DNA sequence: GCAAATTTTGAACAGTCATTCCAATAATGA
DNA sequence: TCATTATTGGAATGACTGTTCAAAATTTGC
């Protein structure tokens, strides 16, 4: 039998970038073949169809995001400091000229109307991220307060993820975060 | 000469709904002909092409949004009360089963990567809305504070516009708004 | 009531879409 | 070595894309 001449993960990483930038509908299989070097036959052999490929790419992105949260929590001196770091990193990202927001949020917005499986998947991933924040925050605050702060945090993240598309928004955003989430400076 | 058998505004209203729900790429001319009752020829006769049609629809949507802000400001007892009303209306909207967020935000996210004219248009409209809030707030606060509050407000609006996609989020959002923007209760 | 002007119609265009198919290729197990 | 099995290559599929065009239809000004 012929040997695979690609790594599933490498393909997915290229596909993530494409779908992330352009969205689901605007990314064609032809573009995917160019970005990955795979022919249509190989793509459909390895990943059943476009939708399954997208879902797997999105799942990989979500896993990266969640890993990144845990990593920053582990490296910071406190939960609140870790969150502050996460937010400043987000602001930093938004300065890039090829900034394209959050893949999960974009998917949610693009595919919500069709009652799509992919929308539900993206939505569930975002909910699980909120839960992760709530769990960490519950080390510092009581469970009710932790959940409330996690909801605030997600709202602000959603906010800055789209405010980031505005030109020269980085400076404003930093001040905005401090004003909206004063409790981040508590511990 | 044949008489027009449609009203430009009616066509646009139908088109707004379609583009708003599905986005630019996922809405085909064929769907537009169905939604409006116009044949392709008429559409291209009245609106040069798909992009121009989209832009006009988006412009009309933006004008509605801006009108709505001025209207609520006029009807409220104070600027801060008007903003509170605007936010609770937003939360109310998010409860609808056919909720599809904000057309401007969705456009911005969908079309940002291509350096698209439509993205720039959406982004500019959102910036002008922020300016409108800043102007109203400057009646109550000094200019610097007004601008800062407007940025906070926009961030929170962006946030709840996408948090609204999460299931059963309405109750949480109301509490979140109160926590994030305590100054709304000042006047 | 005729000619000019404008709009509608809907078929036709070339291109692209996601997907399929199968011959060609290459590695395995016997 | 040879059949079996897994994978690739790339042309072909039919459906759909945005757009164009010329003929038909209908109102206006004269």
From TrEMBL, chains A, B:
The keyword Amino-acid biosynthesis does not apply. It holds the Pfam family TetR_N. Keywords: DNA-binding, Transcription, Transcription regulation. This is TetR/AcrR family transcriptional regulator. The keyword Transcription applies. Residues 28-47 bind DNA. SUPFAM superfamilies: Homeodomain-like, Tetracyclin repressor-like, C-terminal domain. Residues 5-65 form the HTH tetR-type domain. PANTHER family: HTH-TYPE TRANSCRIPTIONAL REGULATOR YJDC, TRANSCRIPTIONAL REGULATORY PROTEIN.
């Amino acid at each position: 039998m012929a040997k695979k001449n690609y790594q599933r993960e490498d393909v997915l990483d290229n596909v993530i970038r494409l779908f992330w930038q352009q969205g689901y509908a605007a990314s064609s299989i032809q573009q995917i073949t160019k970005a990955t070097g795979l022919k249509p036959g190989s793509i459909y052999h390895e990943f059943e169809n476009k939708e399954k490929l997208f879902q797997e790419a999105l799942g990989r992105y979500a896993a990266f995001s969640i890993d990144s949260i845990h990593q920053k929590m582990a490296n910071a001196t406190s939960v609140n400091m870790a969150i502050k770091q996460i937010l400043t990193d987000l602001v930093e990202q938004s300065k890039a000229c090829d900034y394209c927001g959050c893949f999960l949020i974009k998917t949610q917005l693009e595919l919500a109307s069709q009652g799509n499986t992919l929308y539900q998947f993206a939505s569930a991933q975002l909910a699980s991220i909120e839960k992760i924040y709530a769990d960490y925050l519950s080390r510092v605050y009581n469970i009710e307060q932790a959940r409330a702060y996690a909801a605030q945090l997600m709202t602000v993240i959603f906010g800055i993820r789209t405010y980031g598309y505005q030109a020269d928004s980085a400076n404003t955003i930093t001040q905005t975060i401090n004003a909206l989430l004063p409790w981040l400076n508590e511990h």
